Amino acid sequence: MGDPGQGGARAALMAAAGRFGFSETPRLDAELLLAHALGISRERLLLTLADQPVPAAFSDLVARRARHEPVAYITGTRAFWTIDLDVAPGVLIPRPDSETLIEAAVDHFGAGPGPRTVLDLGTGSGALLLAALDQWPEATGVGIDASRQAIEIAQRNADRIAPGRADIRLGGWAGTGAAFDLILCNPPYVATVEAVPEEVARYEPAGALYAGGDGLDDYRAIAPLLKQQIAPGGVACVEIGAAQADSAGALFIAADLQVTLSRDLAGRDRCLVITP
Q: In a 10 Å sphere around its CB, with 0-12 CB exposed, 13-18 middle and 19+ buried, how is residue 249 labelled?
């Protein structure tokens, strides 16, 4: 994989992608890894492919991906909404599906004033909180997680993306005791009996994925605590699995909350939009 020039780079990308048959995006994976090895963006790689060598380090990156290690853990970064996040083992990798929560929040606030305060319950890398703060530059927010490892990564992202505007704390679903204009939450929702891709099961933190035999344990904990955390005129956007709209939604309705549904770009149920 060390030949310079377009032929070498193109051939290296094709060979790498051919080893990633388990991935839904093998060519993209290869491009991200080569860009990382070169220390440039994927966009710059594609624009200058004819001029790029293939570093020896690329082979090691390809071998790691071929063992199903997630690209985001290999490169240490993940794009989400309008921001780029640092990620590492021990924190859930942000998914494009979770951007549905930000889209739902944008729809809720519309052209009027956006949220002034944002709470991200189970913040992980800080993805949802920091995407919201990037969307609404006048807002401030709090990100809470029970994992100290996640808190460290979220703090690093907050210091870079929204310095002085994000308060990262250790905690749980009860929040801070205050009410917020916007609450974002992507809790664990995978049933313990449910099969997940090997790269998820082997590498991502189980505590951020699994939620009991039916995948609803964390919703059961969140639902009775949520109403008091939503400020007047505010909204909570809570991620769900594609088959959980009725089962998870019923828990919030039972807690005297109003629930509507937002779908992701693939048309799958993805977000409960919850108001008092």
A: buried
150: Cβ contacts below 8 Å, ≥ 6 apart: 90, 91, 92, 123, 124, 125, 208
In this structure, the answer to whether residues 63 and 94 fall within a common structural domain is no
Same structural domain, 127 and 166: yes
Residues 6+ apart with CB under 8 A from 19: 26, 62, 65, 66
Range of the domain at 55: 5-67
Give the pTM. Answer: 0.93
User: What does pLDDT average to in each consecutive run of 10 residues of the chain (276 residues)?
Assistant: 58 96 96 97 93 94 98 97 97 97 97 94 98 98 97 98 98 97 98 94 95 98 98 98 98 98 97 98
- Asked, for residue 189, whether it belongs to a domain, the answer is yes
For 144, the token pair is 């809470």
Domain membership of residue 72 (yes or no) is no
